[in-house]
Specification:
Elements lengths: L1 H49 L2 E2 L2 E2 L2 H8 L1 H34 L5 H13 L2 H11 L5 H8 L12 H25 L3 H9 L4 H30 L2 H7 L7 H11 L4 H29 L18 H29 L17 H9 L2 H33 L3 H15 L2 H13 L13 H25 L3 H9 L4 H29 L5 H4 L7 H11 L2 H36 L1
Antiparallel strand pairs: 1-2
Helix pairs in contact: 1-16, 1-17, 3-7, 3-9, 4-7, 4-13, 5-10, 5-13, 5-23, 7-9, 7-10, 8-9, 9-12, 11-12, 13-23, 14-23, 15-18, 15-20, 15-22, 16-18, 17-18, 18-20, 19-20, 22-23
Length: 580
């Protein structure tokens, strides 16, 4: 009897601690979700609410006012035309290159992929500068056309067609990224069966390959659609001088106008733009879920189509000519024309000097200050995202329940929103986080740190989570069974294995923060200019030669940094292989 009472007492003593464990776990979940809600979702909700508020009461006044204006519908029409046209161009180029790289026997595929991704790695506003210099009166295209008969004119990039062209060229690498592995995962047996049935290669592609790859192609197309919708730099650089508005630039015009209803009107336009982006995001998630059926098939890296030597050389020559003209030549032209002493003079030895570089880096103090600001913002943002993003990814990997999935969804929203919309969310949130209380964040560099970390956090989470998926869970369990503490487990086991994936995510965050323009264009204040803001300011003021010189230095820095990262990656792989 005494023994039974003792055992019963032990159970009763153990139960509160077991219950307390779950209570603490739920408490931590609640606190974490609340923090994520306040930082990532509440700013979006406050923006939406502002579009319905006029003098403290709910109203549709701003919606009816804006939707009655012809300028609004003209802007929406331009936005849809530009986004749809550039998305179709990105789809055509991305699918063509992914099919060729996955299926056709061509030499130098690895080098080709570097040139394919170059337009995406370089910020779009710098790419736009490169193309405008490429097609300028002193550029190589004008010089070539001058030699040809017929009085041919240089194409006008300051048009809807020019915006569509540059958006499509900047974002077709996204379509390529999403579709090349889809083609590689399609079973060869289906194509062999189609050939046995008498179908030609074109019929096989149209009736077998294309329908099977359609979910992945559509997903890549929707990613390009969202990126084109979000882009501010290309429409601002090419559309503003020719009075062509899209929603992203129209929102910017409303905010910088500082009228009595500027923020409310911008909020309405942001809701319209956000609805378009949200529809695209939901379709993207749906199609990505549908396309996962292909993930169980191993990628086939061997070519499936072999051409005759002459046709193969002709195809390789065509591909390299396209890649050099679209990826490298505009950047070379930008670098060369940055050496011209004055705008419009021909590219000749007597007209070359370092005058533009002297002004940018020695005379004007803004570029170096902006470069310092951008480097600090990028490094701090990378450090914050590296720590918090990896921690959140680990929790998402370790505890894949409703709370971590909900947190990931909330964190994704700021990145899924167009940049101008997200910048407005930050303004409305941090001018008065609590009604009547202004913490002094807006108008300082602190709001840029908050905005950058909030917007780019999901990139680190995705990179770290992908790296975690490649680790056998038994290694974590073995470390815990062996008595390794949390820090020892991370330092000796997890971090060495996760390092390449985590570093890739951190590098992406760093590059995105370093060259960011859209969010910064609405959040910067005196003394907190970033490199994108300075280049944009030069262009708006008509100082194209200065923006070209500054952009050339940035491109060289990005390329050198990318080369250094690749070299470090190879050294790390050798070290890991040597250790093994």
């Amino acid at each position: 009897m005494i023994i039974k009472q003792h055992a019963s007492g032990e159970r009763r003593k153990g139960m509160p601690s077991f219950s307390l464990f779950f209570q603490k776990k739920n408490l931590y979940k609640g606190i974490g979700l609340l923090a994520v809600f306040l930082l990532f979702l509440l700013p979006v909700l406050r923006l939406v609410l502002l579009s319905f508020v006029n003098e403290g009461s709910l109203t549709l006044h701003y919606y009816t006012e804006i939707l009655r204006e012809q300028a609004t519908w003209s802007t929406i029409q331009n936005t849809l035309l530009v986004v749809m046209g550039s998305t179709l161009l990105a789809l055509a180029l991305g699918v063509a290159f992914s099919w060729i790289v996955a299926y056709v026997e061509v030499r130098g595929k690895r080098a080709m992929q570097l040139f394919i991704f170059l337009p995406f790695i370089i910020p779009s506003y710098i790419t736009t500068l490169a193309w405008t210099q490429f097609f300028s009166g002193a550029g190589p295209v004008a010089a070539l056309l001058a030699w040809l008969p017929g009085n041919l004119q240089v194409p006008n990039l300051y048009s809807i067609g020019g915006i569509i062209l540059l958006l499509g060229l900047s974002h077709y690498p996204l379509v390529y990224l999403f579709t090349v592995n889809v083609f590689r995962k399609l079973p060869r047996e289906l194509e062999d069966a189609a050939a046995t049935s008498g179908l030609s290669k074109w019929q096989t592609f149209r009736k077998v390959v294309l329908p099977l790859a359609l979910p992945g192609i559509a997903s890549g197309g929707l990613i390009a659609f969202l990126s084109n919708l979000d882009n501010f730099g290309i429409p601002a650089f090419l559309g503003t001088p020719s009075n062509i508005r899209v929603l992203s630039t129209y929102i910017y015009e409303q905010v910088v106008g500082f009228g009595p209803e500027a923020f409310s009107r911008a909020a309405v336009l942001s809701v319209i733009l956000g609805i378009i982006a949200l529809i695209g995001t939901l379709l993207q998630w749906y199609l990505l879920r549908k396309s996962r059926v292909l993930e169980t098939v191993q990628s086939d890296m061997n070519p499936r189509i072999f051409l005759k030597p002459l046709k193969q050389k002709l195809l390789e020559g065509t591909l390299w000519a396209f890649l050099l003209v679209t990826s490298l030549m505009p950047l070379i032209a930008m670098g060369a024309l940055s050496l011209i002493s004055a705008y419009g003079v021909p590219f000749a030895l007597e007209n070359l000097s370092l005058k533009n570089y002297e002004y940018v880096f020695l005379t004007d103090g803004k570029p170096l200050s902006a470069l310092s600001n951008s480097l600090q913002l990028a490094l701090v943002t990378m450090a914050i995202c590296l720590f918090l993003g990896t921690m959140i990814a680990y929790l998402r990997f370790k505890y894949p329940d409703w709370s971590t999935k909900t947190a990931e969804l909330f964190i994704t929203i700021p990145y899924a929103l167009p940049g101008t919309v997200f910048a407005l969310c930050m303004i409305f949130m941090w001018m008065e986080p609590v009604p009547g209380w202004n913490p002094g964040v807006y108008g300082t560099v602190l709001i840029l740190y908050i905005a950058y970390a909030t917007r780019f956090m999901v990139l680190q989470i995705r990179g770290s989570y992908t790296a975690l998926l490649q680790i056998d869970p038994s290694m974590d369990e073995a470390a815990r069974t062996s008595g390794a503490s949390g820090w020892t487990k991370w330092r000796k086991i997890l971090l060495p294995l996760l390092f390449p994936g985590i570093l890739s995510g951190a590098l992406l965050v760093f590059l995105m923060a370093l060259t960011e323009l859209t969010v910064s264009s609405l959040l910067w204040s005196t003394g907190t200019e970033t490199v994108g803001v300075v280049i944009f300011g030069y262009e708006q003021a008509g100082y194209s030669m200065y923006s070209t010189a500054f952009s050339t230095v940035l491109v060289l820095g990005i390329l050198l940094g990318g080369g250094l990262f690749m070299a470090l990656g190879k050294l790390w792989d050798r070290k890991v292989l040597k250790t093994k």
